[in-house]
Automatic annotation (TrEMBL):
Keywords: Chaperone, Cytoplasm, Nickel insertion. Belongs to the UreD family. The keyword Cytoplasm applies. The keyword Transferase does not apply. It comes from Pseudonocardia xinjiangensis. This is Urease accessory protein UreD.
Length: 312
């Protein structure tokens, strides 16, 4: 088994050649793989005495969590885990890896404490590798706060999900254009995120890639990409308790009256659920739409609406 302090353990394999062109030596700051640059969080959670609890935890800066809290009166068994990152955000040369194993019958919500800032990269790039495993009958909600890419930033993220057929998974992400007040709307160099979902036997269920490179092919402002919108959000809902057509109808109904957001809902391949893509002009509107879709799906599949996450 690869050691957790090994750079290879924290770095995604088969990185795009386009990203590797940015792979120079870091000249100003800590080198790639230096202490504090290879963040690791390895968690396992399981049902114990009526509550989901952490049964394995390993963490290394800059990633860490505090103990789970239980804040949903509708699902008192669900553990809410807030992922935190030391420092102000992600910088060049960071290689972060998150592994979360949800044992059969567990119920877990994972989010971040605040938005994820991605700082400028002069010499290199940053990566995040997120591996999620959801056992039989388990529930996982993975809904981090938005990503904010600064001018000149370069981020590659790969999320790999393995889920049992009867598991319930709600997985989302939101990308903001950057620090608009600093005239940095879509001023990043590259934002590339991949999402892959598998069954527990390793069969690919679906894959989704979002690649944005301002000023190049894939410019966010292109008509075929984001067009006149600045913010993009994606929500994947996987379950077997509701047919994909019914799940699509549920999500469309939930989003029908949401203002200031363009949303589309479609079935996922392999009959495993539904996907929502949302475009908007403001963070407030898109995050409200994301919460509406999450709460609608959650009410039907988990048995309780979206709770107050107490983020202020």
């Amino acid at each position: 088994m690869t050691r957790r302090d090994d750079l290879a353990w924290c770095t995604p394999t088969e990185l795009p050649e386009e990203l590797l062109t940015f792979g120079g030596t870091v000249r100003d700051g800590l080198a790639v793989g230096a202490p504090g640059k290879t963040g690791v969080l390895d968690l396992a959670l399981a049902q114990r005495a009526g509550r989901t609890k952490v049964i394995r935890q390993y963490q290394r800066a800059p990633l860490h969590i505090y103990r789970p809290i239980y804040l949903d009166p509708g699902r008192p068994d669900m553990a809410f885990v807030f992922l935190q990152q030391q420092g102000d955000g992600i910088v060049q040369g960071d290689r972060c890896r998150v592994d979360i194993d949800c044992e059969p019958g567990s119920a877990v919500h994972v989010t971040t404490q605040a938005s994820t800032k991605v700082f400028a990269a002069r010499d290199n790039f940053a990566t995040q590798l997120i591996n999620l495993r959801v056992g039989a009958g388990a529930v996982l909600e993975y809904l981090p706060d938005p990503v904010v890419p600064f001018r000149g930033s370069r981020l590659f993220q790969r999320t790999s999900l393995s889920a049992a057929e009867d598991a319930t998974v709600i997985l989302g992400e939101i990308l903001l254009p950057g620090r608009v007040a600093h005239d940095e709307a879509h001023a990043y160099d590259l934002y590339w995120t991949e999402t892959e979902a598998y069954d527990l036997d390793g069969k690919l269920l679906f894959a989704d890639t979002l690649r944005l490179r301002p000023g190049q092919v894939g410019d966010p402002r292109s008509p075929g990409v984001l067009g006149g919108y600045d913010i993009v959000a994606t929500l994947f809902v996987m379950c077997s308790r509701m047919s994909p057509p019914d799940l699509v109808a549920l999500l469309r109904d939930a989003l029908a009256e949401v203002p200031d957001v363009l949303a589309g809902v479609s079935e996922l391949p392999a009959g495993c659920g539904a996907a929502v893509r949302m475009l908007g002009h403001t963070s407030t509107a898109v995050q409200a739409a994301m919460r509406t879709a999450w709460s609608g799906a959650r009410t039907s599949l988990v048995g309780a609406p979206a709770p107050d996450l107490r983020k202020g």
